[in-house]
């Protein structure tokens, strides 16, 4: 029997494109906001588009959902993938539209991208590199992916930075620890590179 991937549905915007990409690589996807379904899942994916504050509020507004995610991911050790704002929500807090508490699963905060050069555009939008660090693990590989964001993950511990990209300076492209992986870019918009990453996520045994 195929493993089930719980794709968290909390009104985050890019749900269907992530679902389609996961199904393309053969995942048995269950789109859900049901805490019991999350507790039964073999893998969990948290998408996200929009502001940190709106996504955090959407997630915490669903009774029991964050607790179920915490039990399954941090308690049960199932593989977890956060995408874009879904990755940013792993942080302790976000600074978009004021301070908003995140999940606190990977230490750090989400700050605005600083434009130090007038030629650098914000939001960071389009194709850019993914340069894995020594802490990347087995899911990330070097390549190019599609980005769309104005805020970035400033990690407290450099060992949780799994990949970097360059947009007027270094920006965290991915964070990881144990069974947690978060990517700032959009695998579902990254064509062959993104589909290959999702395939490796389905095979990941952290």
TrEMBL record:
GO terms for molecular function: glutaminase activity; imidazoleglycerol-phosphate synthase activity; lyase activity. It comes from the Bacteria. GO terms for biological process: L-histidine biosynthetic process. InterPro entries: Class_I_gatase-like, GATASE, Imidazole-glycPsynth_HisH. It is found in: Cytoplasm. The active site is at residues 84, 186, 188. It holds the Pfam family GATase. Its EC number is 4.3.2.10, 3.5.1.2. Keywords: Amino-acid biosynthesis, Cytoplasm, Glutamine amidotransferase, Histidine biosynthesis, Hydrolase, Lyase. Residues 7-191 form the Glutamine amidotransferase domain. Its main location: cytoplasm. Pathway: Amino-acid biosynthesis; L-histidine biosynthesis; L-histidine from 5-phospho-alpha-D-ribose 1-diphosphate: step 5/9. NCBIfam families: IMP_synth_hisH. Heterodimer of HisH and HisF. PANTHER family: IMIDAZOLE GLYCEROL PHOSPHATE SYNTHASE SUBUNIT HISH. This is Imidazole glycerol phosphate synthase subunit HisH. It comes from Pelagerythrobacter marensis. The lineage of its organism: Bacteria, Pseudomonadati, Pseudomonadota, Alphaproteobacteria, Sphingomonadales.
